[in-house]
Design brief:
The protein is 48% helix and 14% strand. It is built from 16 helices and eleven strands. It is of the alpha/beta class and 458 residues long. The strands form two sheets. Strands 1, 2, 3, 4, 10 and 11 form a six-stranded mixed β-sheet that branches.
Length: 458
């Protein structure tokens, strides 16, 4: 291979690259401009951190949130856990503190204004925690209405226990200050100690069955646990409650706790958020929730939780899609931040497709036109020369010869794909044909003798 061959190939490559830039360049520029315009309509990127309101530092809500924080940390998201007094305070923060957009709350504890403002959405029911009603074993108590005239610890003010206990007691006509009834709003540990000391008649708690205090009270022979005989009726009246049953000995086989089969009411711990929570965080939070709660435990079947039941607010759209269909393709295979960017960029797909489809359709014809235009633009000149040659006009023969030579020289520098070589060689043949006719005309002119007077000798 001669040195000239690589040079020729390089020139062809450069020419094709220039052609591509001339054809695709305007389309690329339009696409970039369209992208920059559309990006203003894309949802902003999620922040690096979010704040979740939980409960007391020693409570389960706080522990669950800490576990979520570890999961989110693996995706470079910081979950700041905020300790509170409980569900009631959590709702106040959601409604009045712009820095808090996420909370774990107990089902049935939402204030009226939380529903009225219509700014809170449910993400999922996470797990169930029963309402325990412990009372002095020497008292004849079978139903909640039997607590009239008694000293009751319904829970610390602002806690989920206090909110739920008050609702159920009032539904049974048991109200603070009426008929000698007294509510003592003591913290959980203090209420348990007061009950064991006989200082109060009953204490109500919303706790998991694994809580040490539950075991302590179940072991105490002077304390009894209320069996909710009207369990189904309560669940009908209060949809955020689920009737659950603890079989004899299920908590502790060795100590046989509980000592009999008992029916309880269990509200669900709900994960809720305001509209300020970025939707990109919802799949991440639910991933953490599934990891923590899918096993069910003593109160639910494996895989039953988290779910969309036992919630009091409209369900977040992203949460419903995740719990119904699972994580998206991008969420399964890409990092959180890349998947979030793709999901937020969906709004640009339609305008970009609308732009690119016509560009792809017109690109091949434009490319063909540009290649052929290099060849066809000489045919106008060639036709004019051919007509003058056929008419026998000799005055411009030298000029025509120079033009044909220039055309031939330019063809030597033109690079076209093999699929367009037919037009290339057709032009070369036509140039040669006209050039032959021109030479023939000039030959005839040189062969004709001319007299000194300018007339034919014949």
């Amino acid at each position: 291979m001669s040195i000239a061959e690589p040079v020729r190939l390089l020139d062809e490559f450069r020419q094709r690259r220039r052609d591509l830039l001339r054809i695709a360049g305007p389309g690329v520029i339009v696409a970039i401009v369209t992208f920059l315009v559309a990006i203003y309509f894309v949802e902003p990127a999620p922040p690096k951190s979010i704040v979740i309101a939980t409960g007391e530092n020693a409570g389960r809500y706080h522990a669950v949130a800490e576990a979520y924080a570890r999961t989110l940390e693996r995706n470079d998201v910081t979950l700041k856990v905020r300790e509170t007094a409980g569900s009631v305070e959590n709702f106040k923060l959601l409604l009045g503190d712009d820095t808090v957009a996420l909370a774990i709350v107990q089902g049935g504890t939402a204030p009226a204004e939380a529903h009225a403002e219509n700014t809170i959405e449910a993400i999922a029911s996470l797990y169930l925690e029963p309402l325990w009603v412990f009372y002095r074993a020497d008292l004849p108590i079978e139903h909640l209405d039997d607590l009239k005239g008694r000293r009751i610890a319904p829970g610390k003010i602002g806690s989920g226990s206090q909110s739920l206990a008050t609702q159920l007691l009032e539904a049974n006509g048991v109200r603070d200050g009426q008929d000698g009834t007294a509510f003592l709003h003591q913290p959980t540990l203090q209420a348990a100690a007061s009950l064991e000391a006989g200082q109060i008649d009953a204490a109500m708690f919303v706790l998991g069955p694994e809580a040490p205090m539950v075991l302590q009270l179940l072991e105490d022979p002077d304390v009894a646990l209320m069996d909710f005989a009207r369990q189904r009726a309560y669940a009908r009246q209060f949809p955020f409650l689920k009737g659950v049953e603890l079989e004899e000995g299920v908590i502790d086989f060795e100590k046989n706790l509980p000592r009999r089969r008992v029916r309880l009411l269990a509200p669900a711990a709900n994960l809720v958020a305001t509209s300020a929570l970025h939707d990109a965080f919802v799949p991440l939070l639910l991933e953490a929730a599934v990891d923590q709660h899918h096993h069910g435990g003593l109160l639910a079947d494996d895989g039953e939780l988290p779910c969309l039941e036992y919630v009091s607010f409209p369900v977040n759209t992203a949460a419903r899609h995740y719990l119904t269909h699972g994580p998206s393709f991008f969420q399964r295979h890409l990092s959180f931040w890349i998947a979030s960017l793709i999901d937020r960029s969906k709004i640009m797909i339609i305008p970009l497709l609308t732009l690119f489809i016509p560009l792809f359709k017109i690109a091949p014809p434009v490319y063909r036109w540009r290649l052929r235009s290099r060849i066809y633009r000489w045919y106008g000149v060639l036709r004019r020369i051919d007509q003058q040659v056929r008419e026998g006009k000799e005055t411009d023969a030298d000029e025509h010869a120079a033009t044909l030579k220039a055309m031939s020289n330019e063809l030597d520098t033109v690079h076209v794909p093999l699929s367009y070589m037919e037009e290339f060689y057709n032009l070369r043949l036509h140039i040669n044909l006209v050039n032959s006719e021109l030479k023939e005309l000039r030959g005839k002119r040189s062969a004709t003798p001319v007299s000194d007077s300018g007339r034919d000798t014949s």
